[in-house]
Amino acid sequence: MVMSLINMLLTNIEVYLSKGKPWCDFNTEERYYQRLFLGVFLFNISAFFISLYFYFRHNIYCEPGIYTCYAFFEYLVVLSNIGFHVLEVAQFKNRLFMAGLSVSLGKTD
Question: What is the pTM for the complete model shown?
Answer without folding.
Answer: 0.79
